[in-house]
Write a sequence for this structure.
């Protein structure tokens, strides 16, 4: 009886460790993205001014 319970415990522990490793691996493989900060991107006014300058040329 002890051998059967021990075998079940080993299987459960192995399953938990396997799932933990799988979850951790997927978490590290996920590509996180961050939206650009509004101050880093050109404003609409700057884009419009550049467009006007291109039309003049």
């Amino acid at each position: 009886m002890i051998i059967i319970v021990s075998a079940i415990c080993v299987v459960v522990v192995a399953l938990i460790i396997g799932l933990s490793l799988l979850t951790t691996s997927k978490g590290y493989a996920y590509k996180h993205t961050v939206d650009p900060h509004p101050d880093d991107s050109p404003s609409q006014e700057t884009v419009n001014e550049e467009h006007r300058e291109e039309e003049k040329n």
User: Anything to note?
Assistant: The chain has a mean pLDDT of 82. The radius of gyration is 29 Å. The chain is about 70% helix and 0% strand. Residues 36 and 42 are 11 Å apart (CA to CA).
